[in-house]
Write a structure and sequence with these properties.
By secondary structure, this protein is α/β, with parallel strands linked by helices. The protein is built from ten helices and 20 strands. The strands form five sheets. The chain has a six-stranded mixed beta sheet. It has a six-stranded mixed beta sheet with strand order 12-11-10-18-19-20, covered by helices on one side. Strand 10, helix 2 and strand 11 form a beta-alpha-beta unit. The radius of gyration is 22 Å and the shape is globular.
């Protein structure tokens, strides 16, 4: 009892001290690695959260493959509460699933499951007619849809209408945002539709996809944490999950014509491995779901802090906290020459707008899409020219 009373006293002290700051800054949470909140401020409900476990909400479908076919889990409402409901579907014919979005429009769309794709080597040597590059949407479904509609990628029913155009998603489309799961399902659907139309979706994994496949839930929306708990702790993005297997087929480094695509950047440690793109993706794939602390030393230059999903030195060449090269400019030239590209497109490090850096050799794509009023942007490469475009239909020459 004394321990509980002492803890409550400290909680009251923290509450009185931090309440004004939390109200001003819009919310703060102390979470464990599994997404449980020890202490925080719920800005939407204007209340404190202490030792709260996440509750179920609108979520699903989560689809798992087993010997009998597909196991599909989704929540359903029971009055003011939610419960998890599981159904089974045969392996053939491949099912059509309904996805619900917990957004103001209550968006719904259908997704046709496909066979698990073969691993992608990440190499597309030619420049497509149009290449739209964006990153770090982090579960912001409506912002993603607004941008792709404004740029003619999606029709009113969220189907692909970009023909033989390509889009490049340069990592971190999961975590933080409320609609992380519907966003993944929409990308999954576009991935199939684009190929049928002669186009392509190049999804290059970032550090948050890496965390999701390793089971780390610290940055997940709370209802997703609750869903995994309701499923007995079964990892939502394991190899047995349809989305988990699909994510594991994607590269962490890719080339599309003139552009090398990596979420974080290229470090000297990675470059010293002298791996071509296909070899780097093949080497990392068995370890994609491995926690960072357990990565083999040979894989750390690919998936570790100096790896292509995490490294910030190329984005911040003047910041000694991140740079590992004595001459960042010469190192950048070496990377461009090694992979035969004109520039490197990155996310991971926030910039105020999509822009070119380091004499046009680095294309920075990461905007903070959780800021109120944020307008999504992308880079469009067409006819050898680069443009900044946005969700309002804006278009501005970059190079």
């Amino acid at each position: 009892m004394r321990r509980i009373a002492k803890w409550l006293l400290w909680a009251l002290v923290l509450t009185s001290v931090t309440a004004p700051a939390l109200a001003v800054f819009g919310g703060w949470q102390l979470k464990d690695g599994q997404g449980n909140v020890a202490f925080g401020w719920d800005a939407a409900r204007q209340r404190f959260r202490i030792l709260e476990r996440p509750a179920l909400a609108l979520d699903g479908p989560h689809v798992f493959v087993d010997a009998q076919g597909f196991r599909v889990a989704a929540t359903e409402s029971e009055g003011a509460t939610w419960r998890m409901r599981e159904t089974r579907l045969p392996a053939q014919p491949l099912p059509l699933l309904a996805v619900r979005v917990d957004n103001p429009a209550r968006t719904r769309f259908e997704v046709a499951l496909r066979p698990t794709p073969a691993p992608q080597d990440g190499v597309y040597a030619a420049n497509p007619p149009r290449l739209l590059m964006l990153s770090d949407m982090e579960g912001e479904f409506d912002a993603f849809v607004a941008l792709l509609r404004a740029q003619g990628v999606l029709d009113a029913q969220l189907h692909w209408r970009y023909g033989d155009g390509h889009i490049a998603l340069v990592g971190d489309f999961v975590d933080r945002g409320h609609d992380m799961l519907p966003l993944l399902w929409l990308i999954y659907r576009l991935d199939g539709e684009a190929r049928q139309a002669g186009g392509r979706v190049h999804y290059v994994l970032g550090n948050h996809e890496q965390l999701a496949t390793s089971g780390r839930k610290k940055h997940w929306p709370r209802h997703l944490v609750a869903s995994e708990a309701a499923l007995g702790g079964e990892p939502l993005f394991s190899e047995r999950s349809v989305l988990g297997a699909w994510l594991r087929s994607k590269p962490v480094i890719a080339r599309v014509g003139d552009h090398l695509l990596v979420h974080g950047g290229i470090s000297a440690e990675f470059l010293d491995r002298d791996l071509d793109i296909a070899a780097a993706n093949a080497a990392m794939r068995p370890h994609l779901g491995t926690p960072m602390a357990d990565l083999p030393s040979a894989i750390k230059p690919i998936l570790g802090r100096s790896g292509v999903t995490w490294y910030r030195g190329m984005a911040l060449p003047d910041d000694p906290r991140y740079v590992r090269e004595a001459d960042p400019s010469a190192h950048l030239d070496r990377a461009l020459q090694r992979y035969g590209v004109r520039r490197i497109a990155i996310g991971h490090t926030i910039v105020p707008r999509v822009r070119l850096q380091q004499q046009g050799r680095v294309l920075a794509l990461d905007l903070d899409m959780h800021e109120p009023g944020a307008v999504a942007q992308a880079a469009l490469y067409e006819g050898g020219q680069l443009w900044r475009v946005d969700a309002h239909g804006g278009r501005e020459r970059l190079d």
